[in-house]
Design goal:
The chain has one domain: Leucine-rich repeat, LRR (right-handed beta-alpha superhelix), CATH 3.80.10. It is 22% helix and 20% strand. The N and C termini lie far apart (118 Å).
């Protein structure tokens, strides 16, 4: 019993000490806004208490290895926080606990490697920008229970998996940006928690350009009624199931620079889109002409300029060859007679 109590006491003391010693902002330069946007103060921080009256904080080109538990907790006026290019490697759960007014969080150009559960949950953040870090691991519940969250930007990281468990009970999410990662597939019900939302006003935007996607599950977008923009360009998609986008009303669909040789008639009949981008695919020219005809008859703005020019060039070369062959045959006949 004595040992258990002693162990508990040691853990409690250690935990309390770690919280007490959590001061990642000592000697960090910051631009602080407490009133007008036109009246910033540039200060050297001693601790987070220097941020008590700030509604906007900008920190750039500093050295902050870690946001520890409580690092930015209970800052009641803080609305916008930017920590850029400051060697930030990790964010502990509880870093922002109680900072209920925080709306915009920009942690771009750092060295963050993972997003565990408990960092953002139950906060009122609307926009999280984590572009250009080293993130490879995003916990399935990292963005759960965020009632005000709208935009998540995770471009230029090392994410390999698109997790359909993301965004549970975060009903306002509409813009997800994952360009230039290493995502290999879009799974079944990829956006299932977005499909469940009845309170979101904005149309969904999903950005997955320059990944390694070679497989899109036939039910990846099940129960999604409308997508404003779906960017799947510069991936490795060889084919799409006939029903992949059935029932989805699309504003823009970009499939540029994939490995598509054709799109089936059934896929086209199921497709509802305003702007279709298919350039720089190894598209069969007969198939491309078929798609152009479909687009014209359905008032779809279709772009496939480079491949279209290649097909036109092939047709011209084919016509020239046929004409040349005709005259050669004619001359041969004349020589005989």
């Amino acid at each position: 019993m004595y040992r258990i109590v002693t162990l508990f006491a040691l853990v409690a003391v250690s935990f309390g000490a770690s919280l007490k010693n959590c001061n990642p902002f000592e000697n960090v330069k910051a631009t602080i806004y407490t009133g007008s946007e036109n009246d910033p103060q540039i200060v050297t921080l001693t601790s987070k208490t220097d941020l008590s009256d700030a509604y906007k904080v900008e920190i750039e080109n500093q050295k902050i290895d870690e946001l520890c538990n409580g690092a930015l907790a209970h800052l009641k006026k803080l609305d916008t926080l930017m920590i850029k290019n400051s060697n930030l490697k990790s964010i502990a759960p509880g870093s922002f606990e109680g900072s209920d007014e925080l709306r915009v969080l920009d942690l771009t150009d750092n060295e963050i490697k993972q997003l565990p559960a408990g960092v953002f949950n139950n906060l009122n953040i609307r926009r999280v920008n984590l572009t250009n870090n080293q993130i490879s691991d995003v916990d399935s519940s990292a963005f759960d229970n965020m009632p005000k969250l709208q935009t998540v930007e995770l471009s230029d990281n090392r994410i390999t998996k698109f997790d359909p468990a993301w965004f549970s009970n975060s009903p306002l999410v509409y813009r997800i940006v994952l360009d230039r990662n290493q995502v290999k597939s879009l799974p079944k019900d990829a956006l299932k928690h977005l499909a469940e939302s009845s309170t979101r006003k904005q149309k969904i935007q999903l950005w997955l350009s320059e990944n390694q996607i070679n497989d899109v599950h036939p039910l990846a977008f099940r129960n999604i009624d409308e997508i404003e923009a779906l960017w799947l360009d510069q991936n490795k998609i060889v084919a799409l199931s006939d029903t992949t986008l059935q029932g989805v009303k699309l504003g823009r669909l970009s499939l540029n620079e994939n490995m598509l040789t054709c799109i089936s008639d059934i896929f086209l009949s199921n497709l509802s889109v305003k702007d279709l981008m298919l350039d720089m695919n190894p598209m069969d020219c007969d198939c491309l002409r078929k798609i152009r005809k479909w687009a014209a008859s359905n008032s779809v703005d279709m772009t496939a300029i480079r491949r279209g020019l290649e097909c036109a060039r092939e047709s011209i070369n084919k016509a020239f060859k046929a004409q040349k062959q005709y005259y050669e045959d004619k001359l041969e006949i004349e020589r005989r007679f």
